[in-house]
């Protein structure tokens, strides 16, 4: 039973609003399931897909919260 986890950042969205539409989520689920079927021979009905929407304050980059990392990078290249 394969389990696929897709994490999508919520960048550019209103707090509390979904970052991707229901149609986009359905396409991700379908595409991921079909990929596992085509590559590994896994039946569609045995594949689980989990989509997580991650707020930007809940992830980091380069050892820093992502917003701080971007601020510092912009200051260096500015």
TrEMBL record:
SUPFAM superfamilies: Tautomerase/MIF. Coiled coil: none annotated. Keywords: Isomerase. GO terms for molecular function: isomerase activity. Residues 2-66 form the 4-oxalocrotonate tautomerase-like domain. InterPro entries: 4-OT-like_dom, Tautomerase/MIF_sf. Belongs to the 4-oxalocrotonate tautomerase family. This is 4-oxalocrotonate tautomerase.
């Amino acid at each position: 039973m394969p389990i696929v986890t897709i994490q999508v950042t919520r960048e550019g969205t209103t707090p509390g609003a979904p970052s991707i539409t229901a149609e986009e989520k359905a396409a991700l689920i379908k595409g991921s399931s079909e990929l596992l079927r085509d590559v590994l021979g896994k039946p569609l009905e045995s594949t689980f897909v989990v989509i997580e929407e991650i707020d930007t304050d809940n992830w980091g980059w380069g050892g820093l919260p992502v917003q701080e990392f971007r601020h510092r990078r912009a200051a260096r290249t500015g």
